[in-house]
Design brief:
about 50% helix; mainly alpha; about 5% strand; Arc Repressor Mutant, subunit A; elongated; DNA-binding; about 140 residues; two-stranded antiparallel ribbon; homodimer; binds iron/sulfur cluster
DNA sequence: TTTAAATACTACTTTAAGGTAGAAATTAAA
DNA sequence: TTTAATTTCTACCTTAAAGTAGTATTTAAA
């Protein structure tokens, strides 16, 4: 019951950038130090975030990253979706690909309520709404 | 947001054995075919389940496996705990080791409610209570 | 007493995620 | 125009989980 490291990093990175939108641009070196994410791994994820259109990058000296769209339009669910994390948890705690209510897996009934609650929570939590202050770990 | 394969297999195996307690013993070959779990991997997990005292094994010809204690005393939470799955999800969706409410991680407030619900669900769901019929996948 | 059916043990291989290294490309400042 | 600060690309290494193979051990039936 853990998100992948990549997803967790992505959430933390985007949250941090959202919280510091006043500073126009964030660069990889600083992000890496502040968020305690290995530099090379972070830049790999940043490229992903750019390709997935969460982030705009400005290359070259004085370049850096900023949000591609407003923090209020990016939900945690969007992020998880982009990193293929949704396909898992939204479907089945036991990993079934297709949820057939006629042929319930053994935890179907029990899992239904928590599943709905989690999904709602992820959908409603936009970057704008994130309050916590500890972006590390 | 997935359980490890090992945990999922363990849940399915124990559920199936609980549901068929009338048949005195289950053997690895049949379990492997019925549950569609690779034979060699299944026997590895069975040994774990024996060591962790969920299962009693009878060796030799006509041997097999049965529950070591009553289905009503084994919760999904127990199983996850035994396979070190709890340490993760019970603590933090973002993977923090220690949850310090003075120093909330960015999803603390949102995660609190779903987390409680999931944990309750796992704790309340004993093998006896599992209703679903599809033990595969 | 031999044999067949079962679990248990030891060791290896495969796969995917996580992470690292080095160099290329871009761009503004000096 | 050179240089330094930046992102981007390509390729590789590491680790843990998942899965496989072979053999030893146990035990009841034949
Ligand atoms: S039956 Fe329930 S738990 Fe199983 S796959 Fe479908 S939704 Fe998931
Ligand atoms: S602050 Fe909340 S989400 Fe973060 S580690 Fe603690 S319990 Fe988990």
């Amino acid at each position: 019951m853990q998100l992948s490291n990549t997803s967790k990093y992505a959430i933390r990175i985007l949250s941090y950038i959202a919280k510091n939108e006043d500073k126009k641009l964030q660069n990889a070196k600083e992000l890496s130090e502040i968020l305690e994410i290995p530099y090379k791994f972070l830049t790999k994820i940043m490229t992903d975030l750019v390709n997935k259109e969460f982030i705009l990058s400005i290359r070259g000296r004085e370049g850096g990253y900023k949000l591609a769209r407003s923090a209020s339009t990016i939900s945690v669910l969007d992020i998880l979706n982009a990193f293929n994390e949704l396909t898992h948890f939204s479907e089945c705690i036991l990993g079934s690909q297709t949820c057939d209510p006629q042929k319930k897996c053994i935890l179907h009934d029990q899992w239904a309520k928590p599943r709905t609650l989690i999904k709602q929570m992820f959908a409603e939590t936009t970057l704008e709404k994130i309050e916590g202050e500890d972006f590390k770990t």
